[in-house]
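Pair request: fold both.
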Amino acid sequence: MAWLNQEPFSFWQDRYVYRNIKDLSVGEEDITKAIHINEKADPCRATTLTNKVLRGEPIKMIVIGGSNSAGGGIKDHKRLFHQLFSQWWNQVIFPRTGSKLTVENLSLGGTGSDFFTFCLQNFISKNDEPNIVLIELSVNDYGYLHGKTAQPMELLTRRVLSLSSFPLILYVSLVDLVKKGASYSSIKNPRCHNLEDLGQRELATHYGITLISWRDILCPPVNGIRKAYIRPGMVNRDHLHIDVKGHAQVALMIIRYFQNVLQRAEQQYCTKTAIKRPLFVDASILVTNPLCWASTNPRWGKSTVHQSFKVKVQEKRDFSEIPLKSIKAKMGFPSDLRTDAFGGWVSSRQGSFIEYSFQVPPKKWSVGIVIRRMRQNEGRVQMWLDEDKKDAVAITGKAFGSVHFQTRAYFVASNVSPGHHTIRLETEGQKIISILINGIVLGPAGINGFEGYKPTGTLEKVWSLEDYKKFKLRK
């Protein structure tokens, strides 16, 4: 199938800027080294997808990512890596096979695997499940304990692997440099650490998931040591996201992977195997049928959210609602093209409170509350289930550090019986605290949180125990 080798440079959105691979500041060898194929552990998923493509069936791809995938820093969203890949597919594969690719971007800025693990069902329909899933959360899932920090990613991965559509998963691994100046010393993550260092590579190998590592392009290891090699167009001028050249490099890696997969389309039949035993998480907390109420929509203005859990505001003081349908909920409001949106109940006053009521179905559950938009300050918030204030979970605004606009799930109880319950949240002290209550989730009993994952009490994102000790706030 020589036609598969057609390059994207003459027709994709970046055709006037990146006309060949040299313009991308990479070589074919660099691209090849950055694609870590692990399909021997689960080869049937690639075979199943290939058979669908060659039969001319429509293919649906979803992207589960953070702000990089949501379009952070990029004005023209046709230049995002998943859109560039889609342009290649529908220009090259669709005319030959009749297999058209549609892409749904479920990415949410500042959001990690913990939220998606419990709320993914709110954004996809059982009648329209994906065939390809790109998971781009390697910079959103930060922490300091190898294996334990990767537990939410493993839970999310297993949820996606268990979808009835039997999708092919790719991990897309980016890097959060936070480069604030021209000098190398201004890079807060100079060794390019991300979730790969905390267990994601092992997850990819264990579950047979190909890893597309842009980190290997930006920060190639030399004698075992990584150092950022930043070329123009790779890191966005907002200092927070990858730029257009970075997106094009990632897109080309994904294109090369699928060229390889479809070229070796020899086996027509395969036997589906059971998902492997968990690698890092305990089997007792595997998330299979979670419930989620979340005032969140990754496709604001394009689709509605199907809440899997009903929650009612029982009483409140000094909390006001940001309706999810309101344009104020949309990231980048008012001018940005981004469609990820976050509504809920917001307060920035001391002494405010809000109480939610809900019905817990049969069996035991863990109950968590999803919080967003806490800024670093001296304010404090407490949250607890029912009348158990003595066991309240407390967070200070100062403990949120400089990592603002993050979505985090905090579990307030891990052994909740069926029946009517309430969650109450109160802000305390004389200091202002900025907070958005974004959702409530139910998962299997026994979840108290994930040790070492997205810790509060640090000034910056951390990627190792050494980082954690360095950036941990002193009381």
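--- second member of the pair ---
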Amino acid sequence: MDGRLRVYAALAALRVACSVLLLGMVHPDEFFQSQEVMARHFLPEAEDALRRQLHVPWEFQLPSPNRSIIFPALVAGLPYKTLQLLGVKLTGWLLLVTPRVLLCLLSFTLDAVIFAVVGHLSRGQKLEIRREKQEKALLLLASSWPTLVLLCRPFSNTCETLVLALCFAVLFLVNPHRRVLCGVLHVQTVLLGSLLAVGFFTRFTFPVFFFPLGVELVRQQDALLVHAARKKETVGPSVVRRLAATLAVAVQGLVAFLIWSVGFIVVDTVYFHPEVVEGGWNRSMLQKITGNAVIAPLNNLLYNVQYDNLELHGVHPRLTHLTVNMPMLFGPMFLVFLVRFLRYPDRSFFGGACVMFPLACLSLAPHQEPRFLLPTIVPLHIFTALHGRTGVVRFLTTYKLGLLLWIGFNVALTLFFGILHQGGVVPMLLSLATIASLVLARRDSCLRRPTCLPASYSSG
């Protein structure tokens, strides 16, 4: 096995181990966006007292739920149900670890997508050079602390990142000429419209990460139209024809987005308003669903545009994402990427836009946390790796100083966020499962003063 592949295999094993062994709490949302929501549906009747004490996050409360139930149901509900069907008793440890292991395994989707897309975009180069870029992209991704920590935690940002990776795969790896249903439906457009809906109902911020890809899809289709027309005619297609083709792409994507969105709205409405399905599926039920429709991402957007609401969560200077959060997430890679983008914006405008456009949009909001930028890990690694024999990739993977800087940065932040940050909360909650019920009933008063709000499900 090649030396780089051996290192990658070791890093992959380390990622799986980190998903189980690192008990530091990055942010309470890693519990309250998934596990705490789903645990109440799977705790046994014998633990009814604990079920009543489970905290319902504000984002999942009526009258205006801010989160779709789709993400927690897939990330936590599905594995919990699987274990339940297998007859496995759901302990606090399993409730904690199972979603992490699932997301850890799903995170290897990013590895596959980045490897394939880097290979596709460098296909005109020699095989040796192309393979070197692909392998270095994998090494940088697998050794980064966001991969070892954040991508293995059940944040909605993690799912948002996975969906964005699939969008890159569709844009660059699916045949752009492929159509189905007698040539009516364009496969790339339908898939991207569907993924846009999935991402939007995961986090309402997803469209800002998706927008450069949507523009690139239109550009690619327009270029294909011009190329095909010039093969048959001496002049290119008219402006009207090109605009009509662009509109057709947009309409197909919009229809796919709306179909999936309606499905998600129905699921959310039935979950948050179960009374609408009383009496079976009939016209009256459809009227009830329409009258009580829950459009979670829209509710979240309306909540976040109000400054008073954001003050409850903390407000930051507008440059926090640029000057603090991106360097905290990606360290020297982002700093060199930023310098390169500012000096040579025309060399990889699309790659720069995939990172800088969402960064600029999210910087408009006064509440800024590093994990909000997690999806940029996909374009940042792809388009940094394309310059694999020069610049930051060569520095970080070839020179001793670069290797030490990269390893030291990621080891330090993995230890801090994976182990030290609120590191005693989760072990204490897990230990409560073996303590007398009297102590269990008093755990809130013991914990909430010095820590973030603890997750109740893990003490089951």
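Observation on the second member. Residues 1-154+390-460 form one domain.
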